[in-house]
Amino acid sequence: MIIRLPFGQGAVPVDLRGFRIRPLQPEGPRGRPDPAQMVLDAVARPLSGHSLEVRARAAGNVVVVVPDGTRSARIPDILPALSQALTDWGIAPVRQTVVVACGTHPPAPREALDFIVGSLDPSVTVIQHDARDASALVVAGTVRGGGVIRLHRKVMEADLLVTIGAVRHHYFAGFGGGPKMVFPGVAGYEEIQANHARVFDFSGTGSMRRPECEPGRLDANPVAEEIGEAADLRRPDIAVCLVPGIDGGVAKAVAGPWREAFGAAVTLVREIFEVSDGAFDLVVASGGGAPADDTLIQAHKGLDAACRFARPGAEVLFLASMAGGPGSDAIRPFLEDPRPDSILERLAGRWVQYGHTTFRLVEKTARHRVSLLTEARWKGLEGLGFVRVATADEVVDRWREEFQGATVGVMTGPAVYPTNFS
Predict the structure, then answer these.
(1) Spatial separation of the C-alpha atoms in residues 362 and 358, rounded to whole Å
(2) Within the chain, which residue ranges are assigned CATH 3.90.226.30?
(3) Cβ 320 vs Cβ 303: under 8 Å
(4) Average pLDDT for consecutive 10-residue bins of the chain (422 residues)?
(5) Which helix H or strand E contains 387, and what residues bound it?
(6) Which of 180, 185, 273, 287 could join 302 via S-S bond, C-beta 3.0 to 4.6 A?
(7) CATH topology classification for 2-24+277-421
(8) Which DSSP letter does residue 114 get?
(9) Which tens digit of pLDDT belongs to each residue from 128-184?
(10) How would you classify the pairing of strands 10-15 and 387-388?
């Protein structure tokens, strides 16, 4: 069988003839062609509470929070239609603000904003959240343990707050979307770092990664629990949660109070993107294509999912463009010295979330032989333990000699996760 794996803006064929193929793929609906109408239907009939129209007619202004360009959620199709509906319901474009929830990600170039938010009326204000801009943040309150949470001023001042985001497995926060549109999406840098530091327990003589911080795990996950607490400090009036289809489109939209909408979306995402296949000695996967494989930080999520189906000592062929670089300057010091002990020492002194990303990467390359096909030519990739290859064939041809007729787990599209990680 010859398969085609997403790679950047295109795809790469991988010839797996002679092997037994076990597809690792989601089972569910494809994305529908009308995501904007799905969202309008969802906000017209939320799971509970008043419709968005009723809320809009009583509001003086509206703030809509959307994901940045690293998240695929069909926002350019959805947001213009939603903005027009808000206008029809009495909130003129000049009283509409869109906040792009960058979290700690760098802002997109101004000329790229249309690709993130779509074609909006020029009177609509579009702001890219900057977690380090203290002047744009206000104190929203505290979470258990006394941590102070700051959120974007516009979000806190909104008469009507709407969030839109896709719900997907997240490799340590359980699931993305939902409350993450508020926190860390529009929060301050220091509190985001403090939250993500909960992945590790530094209280003992050594450092331990908390086993509850895994994809699909929300209960007893200290990162996820604090995200929920922080989001409750400025609850969205309506949270729109998008459920991805198996083709990367939007299969369903649910809306309402964030806990209800998020919970409903999580149930659907589990049904679609969790599979019961066991572990393999050979795995082939990709970072998912653009924008998911544009940077190391984003592509790592696809590798993380793939390695969950690999036995210790297994071989993984991973394809990811990563032409956009590491993804953040904050990760570069860890790439310069990616030894696990060194990373943990640095993180114990001062937490930086992308140090954790680096740690998880070198964990995988120590546990598995990860052959990497990539367009990346930037400094820092060399020390992470990947085996760089020029073509997929050089790996597969060797496999034919060493593992003739073996079963290969193949993740050809969106990432899936084993059900036992729920």
Answers:
(1) 6
(2) 2-24+277-421
(3) yes
(4) 94 96 92 96 98 98 93 90 98 98 90 91 97 97 95 98 97 96 97 94 77 94 98 98 93 98 98 90 95 93 95 97 93 94 89 90 97 94 94 97 94 87 47
(5) strand 387-388
(6) 287
(7) 2-enoyl-CoA Hydratase; Chain A, domain 1 (3.90.226)
(8) H
(9) 999 999 999 999 999 998 999 999 999 999 999 999 999 999 999 999 999 999 999
(10) unpaired
Q: Which of 351, 361, 389 is nearest to 373 (CA)?
A: 389
Q: Within 292-339, where are the H helices?
A: 296-307, 332-336
Rounded to whole angstroms, the Cα distance separating 164 from 167 reads 10
Q: Which residue has the tokens 């060194």?
A: 342
Helix, strand, or coil (residue 72): coil
8 Å CB contact between 385 and 370:
yes
For the domain 35-272, what is the CATH superfamily, name and number?
Answer: LarA, N-terminal domain (3.40.50.11440)
What is the reported pTM?
A: 0.91
Measured distance CA(204)–CA(55) in Å, rounded: 49
CA triplet 231, 237, 240: central angle to 5 degrees? 80
Take residue 105 and report the two structure tokens written for it.
């990600």
Q: How far apart are CA 172 and CA 200, in angstroms?
A: 11
- Grouping H, G, I as helix, E, B as strand and the rest as coil, residue 2 is strand
